[in-house]
Each structure stands twice: as structure tokens, then as C-alpha cells.
Write a structure and sequence with these properties.
Layout (H helix, E strand, L loop, with lengths): L7 H6 L3 H10 L4 H15 L11 E4 L1 H17 L13 E5 L26 H8 L3 E6 L11 E2 L3 E2 L15 H8 L5 E5 L6 H7 L2 E4 L19 E5 L2 H11 L17 H4 L11 E4 L10 H16 L3 E4 L6 H14 L1 H9 L8 H14 L4 H19 L4 E5 L16 E4 L5 E4 L10 H4 L5 E8 L5 E8 L4 H14 L11
Parallel strand pairs: 2-3, 2-6, 9-10, 9-11
Antiparallel strand pairs: 1-3, 4-5, 6-8, 7-8, 7-14, 11-15, 12-13, 14-15
Helix pairs in contact: 3-4, 6-7, 10-16, 11-13, 11-14, 12-13
């Protein structure tokens, strides 16, 4: 694809939600104008499974989005100065396909679910619409969101706008790709082992994994304490805005908690000034993760920028191994997610992607002979070690991914070779070990924000995770807004212009 000349249309495609809202209020821009620029960008760079391109959407909802944008135009035109307007009024938002929209398909990429239709809005969809958001498209994921790449027989290969040979990550890869390509202002995501943070890291965007239950979901799998839905955005401030809309107790999910939109996350955004006085733990490897040299360099760059702005950086050690963390997570999956997937896809196994069959088998094998109480003990040990490492600190800083990139269509059924910081290469049995994200689903009461920290030699962005103490959401947004101001990133992916 030929690069696009920079101009007003591209500037609109990459506008942030806060700026869009200010311009809507001033009358300098209307929601319909922004939506048309967004739809034009989709037409230009998205393509589809057959014709190439980024392929970030399962469907584009142009007609309903135009209707919602016109209603938002009217609302802004009728508003008097000082009127309280819904926080997302007129903002184009892409939702992950698993976040059901009443009356529309809900298949999660599975042949077993072909023809299924959502009978109600997912809670996050309900809240976005109530906040005035304009849902203009639904984004791709791997089958049942069970991979860290985004491709499936049903929806094809989703590609990274920064390097079209690379994946945008998974499972919320369509969300990350749509944001990075200027095809959405905000997006929804979900996370059970890194599925929000991994695509955020690989696409130069921001992804937030809230503490378990903070953002409501759909029973019965919402009871899985590794899970969580969340926001993705191009800025920390926008991620905070969408998180506040999505969060809080909801009648559909009795495990959800807290107030909605209390302003705490927005109030925590202090830019570089927020670094002053922060005690930041730094771990480049979370134990023995092999981490590519370029990822180490960019993570250190972020840490040194915080230090120069007044943070106290403390190197911390964790007694973890990738093998142990993988086993802990897959034992858990073997008791909940794996059996649920096997039950759902029974009779259609031959139509499943290889990675889905592998996930179900790995989960079953890991949990064989390991009771649920034993699984809880494995979780508790990881949680205790994290608590000890973070004692006396405000946040922990660590890479999001260990590798520079994964192939867009890769299955990695034989594991993955990862370059380490000493120049050696280590083979990991499972490609999920190439991401430093799952420990914080094992310890899922902690908030984690992934923010961009640089670009690797492969052209794919590098992300860093900011981990807070349980339920201490404001701390990660404070640190994240500081990194966002202190560490510069290219404004647009070079691969698509």
C-alpha cells in the first residue's frame, strides 16, 4: 500500500478523544465529520481477509454509526455553554467482536458459533452507548481469544500497521491494529493472560487491565478470576476516559464492583510532574524471561526518563521462571477455560485453528492430576512473591513483551526462540512465554497499564507495563502519563503512511 500524504484527513484519523470533544464543543469539528474521516481511513487501509491490508474489522457499522453521529451533531448544536454532555458523545469507538451488540453476530471466530446472535448488549457496549459513543466497527480476534496473534479461518489474518509481516498481537489484535492505523479513536479489549497489553505493546497504543471485577462482564465466565475487559486507546488520557465509562458495578455481573466514572483516573494524569516522588521498581526479566536486547534498551529508557523527572528507581528481583508461570496459568486454564472451550466446540474440532486445538490440549494436560485447591496454591505463591517484591514501592515497571515481533500468521506450535540480553538465544516451549503479562492475571487484583516505550529494529513498537498494588488504579495512570510525556514515539506507522 502506498503511504498516505499527511493532511487534514489523516490528522483527523489520529485525533484523540479529548481533543475531539473540545473541538465538538467549540463547533470547529462535528462528530459526523470525524466519523467520515474515520470511515475513509478504514476504506483506505483496512482491506479484508481476501484483499489484504490491515484487516482489523469483522464488520463496519457505517449506517448505524452515521445515524448516531448525526444525533451527536444535533446534541452539540443544541447545547448551551456549560451544559453537561455525555463523556464520549460523538467519539468513534471500535468494539471487540466478543463484546456483543444486541441483534448482531456473536461468534468469536468459531465455526461452532456461526449464526449466533447476541440477545443483549455486553455491559461495556451498553455503557459506551449510554455515554454517547459512536460504535462504528467490530474488531477481530483469534478463535475464542485464545492466542497472542490474531488470525483465524473465519476472519483471516490481522496485520500490524507498523510492519505488515508482523502480528498486532492478540487476542485484542484487531483493536490494537484499528487504533494504530487511525481507524478508531478508542477501542474495547479483553485480557486473560495479556490480551489487552500484548496488542497495546506491539501496536504502540495504550492498554489497561483493570483489577478483577472492576469492569463488568458476562456470566458465567466472568467468574474466572484471571479475566477482565478493558480499554485501549492511543493516549493514556483516553484510556483513562474509557476506563471510567466502562468501570463500576453492573447488575448483569454481580462480581463487579466500585463506582462508575468517579474521575479518579483522570485526576491522576499529571504528565511528567507525576514522576516526582514515585518509587518505581524495575525488573527487566521478571525472573528468567529471555528479553530481546532492544526491548531491554527501551524499557531502561523509560525508567531513566522517570528517574530524570524525579522518580526513585529501584531494581527488584523476582524468583519466577517462565516455565513455572506457564504451568501455573495453564493449570488454571485446565480447570475453567479449556473445558469451556472444549464443550463449546465439541463436534467441530476439525474446523478449529491449530492454535485452538493446542490450547485446549495444553490446558487439559497441565491440569491432569492437579486439583483446584492445588491450582489456588500455585496462584497464591506467585501473588505473595509479587507482594514482597513491590513492598515499599508505588509501581513496578517491566517490559510488556520479550520479543520484537511475532509473525502475522504464525502458530508457533513448536515454541519460540527468543534472543536474550547476553547475545544468546533461548528456546521457550510455549510462545505465550514470550510475553511478560500472565503473572498479573495470576495476581489479577493488580491494575496494569501498558504504554509505548519505543520502536524496535523490526519497526514494531515496544511497550512497558506499569503494575500497581491491588486496586490502586490511580498509581498506574499517574506513572503512565509521566512516561507518555517523557518518551517520544513516531506519530504514525510507517508501513501504511
Amino acid at each position: 500500500m502506498a503511504p498516505t500524504a499527511l493532511g487534514r484527513d489523516l490528522d483527523l484519523a489520529y485525533i484523540d478523544a479529548h481533543t475531539a470533544r473540545r473541538r465538538f464543543i467549540s463547533g470547529d469539528l462535528t462528530p459526523s465529520e470525524l466519523l467520515e474521516a474515520t470511515l475513509a481511513r478504514i476504506e483506505e487501509v483496512n482491506g479484508d481477509a481476501t484483499h489484504g491490508g490491515v484487516n482489523a474489522f469483522t464488520e463496519v457499522l457505517a449506517d448505524s454509526a452515521r445515524k448516531a453521529a448525526r444525533a451527536a451533531d444535533a446534541a452539540y448544536a443544541a447545547a448551551a455553554p456549560g451544559d453537561a454532555l455525555p463523556p464520549l458523545l460523538g467519539v468513534p469507538i471500535a468494539t471487540k467482536e466478543k463484546h456483543g451488540i444486541a441483534g448482531r453476530s456473536l461468534v468469536q471466530g468459531l465455526e461452532a458459533c456461526r449464526g449466533a446472535v447476541a440477545d443483549a448488549h455486553h455491559p461495556v457496549v451498553e455503557r459506551i452507548l449510554a455515554a454517547g459513543g459512536v460504535i462504528h466497527g467490530r474488531t477481530t480476534s483469534p478463535e475464542f481469544s485464545c492466542a497472542t496473534t490474531t488470525h483465524s479461518p473465519m476472519w483471516g489474518v490481522t496485520r500490524n500497521p507498523w510492519n505488515l509481516d508482523a502480528t498486532p498481537g492478540g487476542s485484542s489484535g484487531g483493536a490494537g491494529a484499528a487504533l494504530a492505523a487511525g481507524m478508531a479513536v478508542l477501542a474495547t479489549a479483553s485480557d486473560i493472560a495479556g490480551s489487552t497489553r500484548i496488542p497495546a505493546g506491539f501496536t504502540g497504543t495504550v492498554g489497561y487491565k483493570a483489577p478483577y471485577g472492576r469492569i463488568p462482564a458476562i456470566p458465567p465466565l466472568s467468574a474466572d478470576w484471571y479475566r477482565g475487559d478493558g480499554p485501549m486507546a492511543r493516549t493514556v488520557a483516553d484510556a483513562a476516559l474509557l476506563a471510567e465509562v466502562m468501570s463500576g458495578r453492573h447488575i448483569a455481573d454481580h462480581g463487579s464492583w466500585g463506582r462508575q466514572g468517579d474521575g479518579e483516573l483522570i485526576a491522576a494524569l499529571r504528565g511528567a510532574e507525576g514522576a516526582r516522588g514515585l518509587r518505581v521498581g524495575l525488573s527487566l526479566t521478571l525472573g528468567d524471561y529471555p528479553v530481546a536486547p532492544s526491548v531491554r534498551v527501551q524499557t531502561l529508557r523509560a525508567a531513566r526518563a522517570l528517574e530524570a523527572a524525579g522518580a526513585d528507581i529501584v531494581e527488584v528481583a523476582l524468583p519466577w521462571s517462565t516455565e513455572r508461570l506457564r504451568r501455573t496459568a495453564f493449570v488454571h486454564f485446565g480447570h475453567i477455560l479449556g473445558p469451556a472451550m472444549a464443550q463449546l466446540t465439541a463436534g467441530t474440532e476439525s474446523q478449529l485453528a491449530a492454535y485452538t486445538r493446542r490450547f485446549i490440549a495444553d490446558a487439559e494436560r497441565a491440569a491432569t492430576g492437579v486439583s483446584l485447591p492445588d491450582s489456588l496454591a500455585l496462584d497464591a505463591a506467585v501473588q505473595a512473591e509479587l507482594a514482597a517484591a513491590m513492598h515499599g514501592l508505588d509501581v513496578l515497571l517491566t517490559p510488556t513483551q520479550a520479543v520484537e515481533m511475532l509473525d502475522a500468521d504464525g502458530d508457533y506450535l513448536d515454541g519460540i526462540d527468543v534472543p536474550d540480553g547476553d547475545g544468546s538465544t533461548r528456546h521457550l516451549e510455549h510462545y505465550w512465554e514470550a510475553h511478560l503479562t500472565s503473572p498479573f492475571n495470576i495476581a489479577n487484583r493488580v491494575p496494569v497499564l501498558s504504554v509505548p516505550a519505543g520502536v524496535s529494529p523490526s519497526g514494531v513498537p515496544i511497550g512497558v507495563q506499569i503494575v500497581g498494588h491491588p486496586f490502586a488504579e490511580a498509581s498506574v495512570f499517574r506513572a503512565g502519563s509521566a512516561i507518555a510525556e517523557l518518551v517520544t514515539m513516531p506519530p504514525y506507522p510507517r508501513a501504511i503512511g
